[in-house]
Design brief:
Mean pLDDT: 86
CATH topology: Rossmann fold
Number of strands: 7
Number of domains: 1
Order of helices and strands: EEHEEHEHEHEH
Shape: globular
Radius of gyration: 16 Å
Helix content: 25-40%
């Protein structure tokens, strides 16, 4: 997809803050520090549209972005790591669950995992949940530039066995997987 325009719309902590939109929407989810924000920037050919940080747990709300005046992206808070008290962390979990179950314009989920790590219980739960809810999921094995090609392929096989979907291998630094990810997103926008 050719990106003509991409811009931040708003941040929302609750349903009342979601932007009113009939445009198709794609959510991006994954562990804290898996590279969700960098991946979105890469996909949109932008360097600083989505704020990135080397510290995990910086995204604490659902951040909405408008692309080409035709679709929305939602950057979700990472799971598995959080700075904050238990009540605050539980609030983030409820916020994400509410968004994923109640957002009518949501067409699919880009589930991002780190290729260097074997999927754990939280990632398996996200895969199971999306399967049970009927939400279409695109699995991304990010940070492929950190491993050799053969190690990437071995790791991708393990990820596929654990999460039930063949992952798209992605590298923000090398641009690997970008075309494949757009090819997977595009059909979701017309349903």
């Amino acid at each position: 997809m050719k990106i003509v325009s991409a811009g931040f719309v708003q941040t929302a902590l609750k349903k009342i803050g979601w932007p009113e939109s009939q445009l198709p929407e794609i959510a991006f989810a994954g562990r804290s520090n898996v590279g969700k924000s960098s991946l979105i920037n890469s996909l949109l050919n932008r360097k600083k549209l989505v704020k990135t940080s080397s510290s995990p747990g910086k995204t604490r709300a659902v951040n909405f972005f408008l692309i080409n005046q035709k679709l929305m992206f939602a950057d979700l808070p990472g799971y598995g790591f959080a700075h904050g008290d238990k009540r605050e962390v539980a609030g983030w979990k409820r916020m994400v669950e509410e968004y994923l179950t109640e957002r009518e314009s949501l067409k699919g989920l880009v589930h991002i995992v780190d290729i260097r790590r074997k999927p754990d219980e939280l990632e398996e739960m996200m895969a199971e949940w999306s399967e049970q809810s009927g939400l279409r999921r695109i699995l991304i094995a990010n940070k492929c530039d950190k491993l050799s090609k053969s190690a990437c392929l071995r790791s991708a096989k393990i990820i596929e066995e654990k999460l039930g979907v063949k992952p798209i291998l992605y590298s923000v630094l090398k641009g690997t997987g970008k075309k494949e990810l757009w090819s997977a997103i595009t059909p979701l926008l017309t349903d």
